[in-house]
Design a protein that fits this description.
Elements: H1 2-46, H2 61-64, H3 66-69, E1 105-109, E2 114-118, E3 120-122, E4 152-156, E5 192-196, E6 201-204
Antiparallel strand pairs: 1-2, 3-4, 4-5, 5-6
Length: 245
């Protein structure tokens, strides 16, 4: 009788404990992103408000920001995504659901002869790949932009960069989408955490990603937005339960 009562109490309390634990992890994740925001703002203040360029080497932004986080490596890891899963791991499934929450990418820093774990992705539309190329105009290049609260900087991601395009749709399955929206996942109970260029941090729903101002020319009325005519049935099955934007 005693054992059955204990088992019943555990079954009642465990979901609540897990819910509180996930909420705490989300709070720590947002704290990490705020620390990154402070570091980015410090870098920009010292660099005439200009973002990096790929000439800095070793994965661009990761290398440029290394002095700011080398003594605090945990700031690069979301609490729900600390376990590294190799791409060739047979346990890694593109339809793995919760496995996405455990994904951590390794970013190699050859010049420093080491690799670092990273579960956040940077918006690569902030800094140009090559200043001499005319089609690099969409890049923000500076943090002096209007409505910075809609321009993403850093976010929960399965890659060290959050690649996007208004012409690319969502991944068919919840899992590491190696092409397109590498941040399109459900890491924090209905979305991901994101740092914006006004240095605010907030939760963003998976479908909301297509409404943000990723670069100067990003079409926020693209076919994957309500303004662009998307229908609930157009989304992959795993995304249909999330809020529309």
């Amino acid at each position: 009788m005693v054992i059955s009562i204990v088992v019943m109490l555990i079954s009642i309390l465990l979901p609540a404990v897990q819910r509180v634990r996930k909420q705490a992890q989300a709070v720590v994740c947002q704290g990490n992103l705020r620390q990154w925001g402070f570091a980015f703002k410090t870098y920009l203040d010292d660099n005439k408000n200009k973002w990096f360029d790929m000439g800095t080497g070793d994965h661009g932004w990761v290398s440029s920001m290394w002095p700011f986080w080398r003594d605090e490596p945990d700031v690069a890891l979301c609490p729900t995504a600390r376990r590294y899963v190799p791409l060739n791991d047979p346990n890694l499934s593109l339809i793995g659901g919760d496995r996405t929450n455990a994904w951590v990418g390794w970013v190699q820093l050859p010049a420093r002869r080491r690799a670092c774990a990273m579960s956040y992705g940077f918006n690569p539309w902030l800094y140009p790949l090559d200043l001499s190329r005319p089609y690099d105009f969409p890049y923000w290049r500076t943090d002096n932009v209007r409505d910075g609260g809609r321009a993403p900087v850093l976010m929960d991601c399965v890659h060290h960069e959050g690649h996007t395009s208004s012409t690319i749709g969502p991944p068919e399955y919840e899992g590491p989408p190696w092409m397109g929206y590498t941040m399109c996942t459900n890491r924090h109970n209905g979305g991901i955490n994101m740092l914006f260029m006004d240095w605010g941090v907030r939760k963003v729903g998976p479908k909301q990603l297509w409404t943000l101002k990723w670069n100067r020319q990003y079409n926020t009325a693209n076919p994957w937005t309500i303004r662009g005519g998307v229908r609930p049935e157009d989304w992959p099955a795993w995304m249909r339960r999330f809020k529309d934007y």
